[in-house]
Amino acid sequence: MNFENITIILVNPSHPGNIGACARAMKTMGLSQMRLVKPRREVDADAIARSAGAEEILYQAQYFDDLKTAIADCQLVIGTSARQDVPDVIDLSFREAASIAVEAVAERKVALVFGREHAGLNNDELALCQYHAYIPANPEFSSLNLGAAVQVMCYEVFLASQNISKPVETRLQDAYATQHEIELLFAHFEKTLADINFYDPNNPRRLMPKLRAMFNRTQLLKSEVAILRGILTAVDAK
């Protein structure tokens, strides 16, 4: 299976050695696409040493200033965390998340997102994801090293790929919406709902997160985003 459509994204990694360990974990399981969101230190000799022969992944890694930009061209985004029951995001085990990623990879660009070593992804970052994946572990000590977490996910992706007897064929006439297109839709919703006094940005409560969660469950197509934005534009014109 071609894993070119699966990207591992590391958000604010603090230690170059961990980035190298992630590259090694990826290469052992056939993944090669890495994106780094504002790493705290540059990739250095320690990162290259820890990559143990996977330095080409480090050299080809793409850099971004924020997670929203890093996932803009992706059509399926899975965030990872040691936490469970993240508000308004569907919870999956790593094994379930890997199966969904492998099933989607023929039709969509998939991002698997890992957070900071000390704190993981925050709620705003997890809200950008369609799914939240966790590793079932000892509840009294559930935190894994970043490289170990990436290794587990990459292994599960590789394992899931072995269970697919033939490549998944594209079944849709329309493409899935990118994360950038979905973010533009949410921004349009927020503006329109505020203009008609259905939404108060100064007292937002849970409206926008609930809308986001609802649409995340549907896996929006480009044409569906266009229809929804057309409806909002018609409301704007009233």
Task: Give the helix level as a range of percent.
Answer: 40-55%
Strand arrangement across the biggest beta sheet: 3-2-1-6-4-7-5
The string of secondary-structure elements, in order, is EHEHHEHEEHEHEHHHH
Oligomer: single chain
Q: Give the biggest beta sheet.
A: 7 strands, parallel
The separation of the N and C termini measures 50 Å
According to DSSP, the number of beta strands is 7
What's the CATH C level of the largest domain?
A: Alpha Beta
The CATH architecture of the largest domain is 3-Layer(aba) Sandwich
Q: How would you sum up this structure in a few lines?
A:
The protein is an alpha/beta fold.
Key terms for this structure?
Helicase, Ruva Protein, domain 3, 7 strands, 2 domains, 10 helices, 238 residues, 45% helix, single chain, Alpha/beta knot, globular, alpha/beta, 7-stranded parallel beta sheet
What do these coordinates show?
This protein has 238 residues and is of the alpha/beta class. The chain folds into two domains: 6-162, Alpha/beta knot (3-Layer(aba) Sandwich); 179-237, Helicase, Ruva Protein, domain 3, CATH 1.10.8.590. Helix content is 45%, strand content 13%. The protein has a seven-stranded parallel beta sheet. Helix 1 (16-28) runs parallel beside helix 2, helix 5 crosses helix 7 (146-162) and helix 8 packs parallel to helix 10. It is globular and about 60 Å long. The mean pLDDT is 90.
Task: Summarize the SSE layout with pairings.
Blueprint: E1 6-11, H1 16-28, E2 33-37, H2 45-51, H3 55-60, E3 62-64, H4 67-70, E4 76-80, E5 90-93, H5 94-104, E6 110-114, H6 123-126, E7 131-134, H7 146-162, H8 179-195, H9 207-218, H10 222-237
Parallel strand pairs: 1-2, 1-6, 2-3, 4-6, 4-7, 5-7
Helix pairs in contact: 1-2, 1-7, 5-7, 8-10
